[in-house]
């Protein structure tokens, strides 16, 4: 029996409706909202304007928030890569029993709510918290370290949260490296360090870029951890967007900030894909 020409469109119709209703429609509403004017005390106006975008791009306060968010994303991504790469190698090159236990330990923190984990870091990093108390009791420091309500605390908290994502994305990339390539390098008397930097890392570049994109995007858009570990005065783009919507009630400015954050994330993904394609062509040739 010949299938009806409408079979294909009917199969994708539910997903299309869900996409339109759940993503495209809210995005379009937010886009229109970001182009509306706003007057304090009067609310959202009826005029169309680019002032919300221009105020962000031309105001030093907002530019500092954007720069801080990007710096946070790069620091967290770098820390996750430094910790996640050895972890992925250890898991991959362990016995099957150790691999299973290690993967479970990596996945287990993901089952815990981010709020709970952030509260845990507040207990550890507070001026009178566990870390400062232990360091002062041992005589290493004489005054509490400033580990909270600044960049340090936020980087520590986000790194712990996103290291599993980096490690889990690096494991398949390392599995795809042919063992014969590293064996051939050792046969040619290359040291372990040279094999690692000239063979393992270049062949794992696609996984490194994929994991870095995911961690960076999650870091610059994180809200709960920067708010809890950074405090109300430590502003990044996600916390400022929340404040514009919920505290200042300036929805057009918040929508404009949200689209600028989205544009930054898309630009990063585009650049990373170009870099990944370049390395892939170089490796294949």
Task: Describe the structure concisely for a colleague.
With 285 residues, the chain is mainly alpha-helical. 75% of the residues lie in helices and 4% in strands. A two-stranded antiparallel ribbon has the order 1-2.
Describe the structure.
This protein has a single domain (48-284), classed as Orthogonal Bundle (MetI-like fold). It has 285 residues and is mainly alpha-helical. It has helices at 7-34, 51-58, 60-92, 96-107, 114-125, 130-137, 151-175, 179-187, 192-203, 205-220, 224-230, 237-246, 251-284, and strands at 36-39, 43-48. The mean pLDDT is 87. Strand 1 and strand 2 form a beta hairpin. Strands 1-2 form a two-stranded antiparallel sheet.
Question: What is the beta-strand fraction?
Answer: under 5%
Helix/sheet category: mainly alpha
Kindly identify the CATH topology: MetI-like fold
Number of domains: 1
The fourth-level CATH homologous superfamily is: MetI-like
Poorly predicted spans: none
Number of strands: 2
CATH class: Mainly Alpha
From the N-terminal CA to the C-terminal CA, the straight-line distance is 48 Å
Spatial strand arrangement across the major sheet: 1-2
Q: How many separate helices?
A: 13
Q: What spatial form do the alpha-carbon principal axes imply? A: globular
Rg? 24 Å
The succession of helices and strands, N to C, reads: HEEHHHHHHHHHHHH
Largest beta-sheet details = 2 strands, antiparallel
Q: How confident overall, as mean pLDDT? A: 87
**Fraction in helix:** over 70%
What kind of assembly state do the chains in view correspond to? single chain
In the CATH hierarchy, the architecture is: Orthogonal Bundle
